[in-house]
């Protein structure tokens, strides 16, 4: 009986991990996972989702982001090729979307802090706030500098 329970939990963890793999490069909430699994007839409770997410974060398979003023955390799948990749995050002030981007200039700054100041910035808690590219394109009055 105990083995069946472990297999069941492992199966749930695999279902959650597969969801993240399917939606790579997206920032996902627990509610997103719950709604999707319910729609797919994979009933997994919210507490179980949190428990498996905690394990996946501890195993460095998933990254967790907590935004100031937000009620929920965001999670993102880290693929094998992405583990060493430096990514930055932008929270759009207009559409509220959290997105990531890569920038060689910011990479250089990040590396500068490490090498010159012995400061290791936690990028999972470092978020830029502004207007995303999509919202900038929709706002025809905005002028790029």
Would you kindly provide a written description of the structure presented here, covering whatever features stand out?
A three-stranded mixed β-sheet has the order 4-3-5, with no helix packed on it. It has a two-stranded antiparallel sheet with strand order 1-2. A hairpin with a 5-residue loop joins strand 3 (88-92) and strand 4 (98-101). The longest helix is centred in the N-terminal third of the chain and has 21 residues, at 2-22. It has helices at 2-22, 30-39, 46-58, 104-117, 133-138, and strands at 62-66, 73-77, 88-92, 98-101, 127-130. Helix 1 (2-22) packs across helix 3 (46-58). The chain is globular and about 45 Å long. It is built from five helices and five strands. Mean pLDDT is 81; it is low at 1-8. It has two domains: 1-80, Winged helix-like DNA-binding domain superfamily/Winged helix DNA-binding domain (Arc Repressor Mutant, subunit A, Orthogonal Bundle), CATH 1.10.10.10; 86-145, Dna Ligase, domain 1 (2-Layer Sandwich), CATH 3.30.1490.190. It is an alpha+beta fold.
What structural keywords apply?
5 strands; alpha+beta; 5 helices; two-stranded antiparallel ribbon; 2 domains; three-stranded mixed β-sheet; single chain; 145 residues; Dna Ligase, domain 1; 44% helix; Arc Repressor Mutant, subunit A
CATH superfamily of the largest domain: Winged helix-like DNA-binding domain superfamily/Winged helix DNA-binding domain
Which range does the strand content fall in?
Answer: 15-25%
The CATH topology assignment of the largest domain is Arc Repressor Mutant, subunit A
The CATH architecture assignment of the largest domain turns out to be Orthogonal Bundle
- Helix-strand pattern: HHHEEEEHEH
The class by helix and strand makeup works out as: alpha+beta
Q: Could you estimate the helical fraction of the residues in percent?
A: 40-55%
Order the strands across the largest sheet as they lie in space.
4-3-5
In this structure, how is the largest beta sheet organized? 3 strands, mixed
Round the Cα radius of gyration to an integer and report it. 18 Å
Q: Helix segment count?
A: 5
Tally the structural domains.
Answer: 2
Give the CATH class of the largest domain: Mainly Alpha
What is the overall shape? globular
Poorly predicted tracts of residues = 1-8
Mean pLDDT: 81
Number of strands: 5
Terminal Cα separation, in Å?
65 Å
